[in-house]
Amino acid sequence: MTAPLVEVKAISKTFTRKAAAAGGKTTHKALDAVSFVMDRPERVALIGPSGSGKSTLLRAISGLHAIDRGDGTVSVLGQPVQANGRLSQDVRRIRTRMGLIAQQFNLVPRLSLFTNVALGFLGKISALRGLFGLWSADEKQKVMRALDHVGVAAMAGQRANTLSGGQQQRGAIARAIVQDAEVVLADEPVASLDPVTARKVMKLLVDLNEQSGVGVIVTLHQVDYARAYCNRILALKDGKVVYDGPSAQLSDETLRDIYGAEIEDAYWGEDHAS
Ligand code: ADP
Ligand code: MG
Hints:
Blueprint: E1 6-18, E2 25-38, E3 43-47, H1 54-61, E4 73-76, E5 79-83, E6 86-87, H2 91-95, E7 98-101, H3 113-118, H4 127-131, H5 137-150, H6 165-178, E8 183-187, H7 195-212, E9 215-219, H8 223-229, E10 232-237, E11 240-246, H9 252-259, H10 270-273
Parallel strand pairs: 3-9, 3-10, 7-8, 8-9
Antiparallel strand pairs: 1-2, 1-4, 4-5, 5-6, 10-11
Bound molecules: adenosine-5'-diphosphate (ADP) and magnesium ion.
Adenosine-5'-diphosphate binds near residues 15 and 50.
């Protein structure tokens, strides 16, 4: 039996904030005993109102945030990412097997798209070789194939900061392909894109899952994208899991419970207007 791609057990994350009163502090539980397992490569949409803990959960899975001390654990591909509030010593090595995609600023602005994507090799080759851009012929070919797959091969030589938001997101996906990422964690990857571009980027994430067997967890602001592109939905509210199951079985009633007054914002509108 192979290890689950992602296994999150009873994790909590408390943030301490300075209160308005001098010297005062307040605490806020951004994640409250969250558990979640992805056994096989799925497309999981992480949804929930703003502030419900989506980004915090992705950061906990990728080992960018240490969780609260206690029994909570995070493992990815059978490797411990963190436990008892401490990151594993191996967290960087495990992270080389994860593709991380954010809403924006995924690429180094002054480097070419080609180089940005080739940086996906960094976990596998010496940093020095990467630093000098000494990519082998095979590596160059792999970068170009990935760029071609996501539809931006023609921009390979362009600096990342001259690319549109959609082209940059395609570049971030190409980097995950070059990296041979086995799990992709994407935090609102389409939130800054127009609907047509957003759909194309979502389709690329679907391809990554279906064609390459990559497990994808994607936070989405809009429920319609979650239902259209993901087979499973994990919904958070106030740091707690309030739904975890097939996208098709998430009822409108549950959605109203999850989003409350924000429900109108959770739809993209166009399909509902028609
Ligand atoms: P979401 O991504 O669902 O919008 P987040 O995971 O970003 O929500 O945030 C969850 C809660 O944790 C929010 O109340 C947010 O203000 C708080 N939070 C997130 N990051 C920090 C931080 N670095 N310091 C303090 N509070 C934070
Ligand atoms: Mg967020």
